[in-house]
Amino acid sequence: MVPKYADEYAKPKLNAKADKEYLSGLKEWQRARILGSKAKANEALKTGDINSVFNAMKPERYKVKSINEVAKFQKNTNIKAENNVNNKAQNQQENYQPSEEIKGLIDKFKQKMVTYLEPQKLKSPLSEDEIIKKISGGDLTQGSCASAALAYLANKAGLDVRDFRGGASREIIAHGCRSILINSGAKIYYDSSTADAQKTFTKVAEVLRSGKSKEVYLAYASHATIIRYVPNRSGGVFDYLELQSEKKNGWVQINSLEQIEHRFGAKIKQEVISDKTKIKKEIKGAIIADADNLANNKDIRAIIGYLNTKDGDELKGEKGNIK
Fold it and tell me: pTM higher than 0.70 for the full model?
């Protein structure tokens, strides 16, 4: 029975021309020695697939040492190709030109002396629970909801990002949240300056139930977070992501509009008129954006570096609270 090809070599090749490059660099007799004959060598050189030729050979002509040499070459070639891909992506991010509006926000960060901390790739993907545990906590700033939600999305996209930097970083992102979403070219499902909880959540439900997005970034009234739809729980329910609690963070099921109004700071005003109470629902601005690919947006990634915080420097803890 013919032994299987080297594990490293059997993996998908990032450089499809690697076999030809390897064989072309050898002398004819070397190719013949590795493949068993000139004919087999020519076949592999022509098809560019050493793997198929090796696996079709008889056991006595199967050169294990040679296979490992080829596998080592291919593995190194893959590493080089992967590095080229990463370098290309990094260069694209470094060379990209933001829109005038995003450039204006970046200039604000610089004017306020906000340090840019380059987001690094996570060494290995984190589970959703691990991300929430990593970035959440009792908020000791004046309110980092907008940036905390972006930090969550960044980690889901494979970036090592922390939040709760506070100061000018928090202030610019909080006040510029709508501008960031609009001018980054993010997919916007709803944008209104005259929304109430009913209108806003109706639109959220419509988007999520349709499957257009698995999660949406919702900025409404005085709060911003991620909303998701869970179709298999209790016939279909919605959750919002809590990241600022000193006690318990994670997904919270939404059970009423009053709950949304309370958490998002959309106050309900009551007036007594002729012994009757009249309720006025406060009108606030609302914007709903697709969260699935938000952190992969180049403009958003440029902004994330200004909220990214060193481990241990986050302004969060048991003495903080929901804002």
Answer: no
Position 39, amino acid: A
Structure tokens at 125: 């993907």
b/e per residue 67-96 (b: at least 16 CB within 10 A): beebbebbbebbeeeeeeeeeeeeeeeeee
One-letter identity of residue 51: N
Q: pLDDT tier at 51 (50, 70, 90 boundaries)?
A: low
276 pLDDT band, cuts 50/70/90, is: low
Structural Rg of the chain based on CA atoms: 28
Alpha-carbon span 82 to 49, nearest angstrom: 20
Q: How do residues 230-267 score in pLDDT, each as one tens digit?
A: 999 999 999 999 999 998 999 999 999 889 888 998 76
Q: How far apart are CA 241 and CA 252, in angstroms?
A: 6
Report the distance separating Cα 12 and Cα 15, nearest Å: 9
Report the DSSP beta bridge partners of residue 252: 240
Distance of alpha carbon 200 from alpha carbon 191, whole angstroms? 9
Q: Tally Cβ neighbours within 10 Å of residue 194.
A: 9
Report residue 88 CA to chain centroid gap. Answer: 19
Residues in a beta bridge with 217? 226, 289
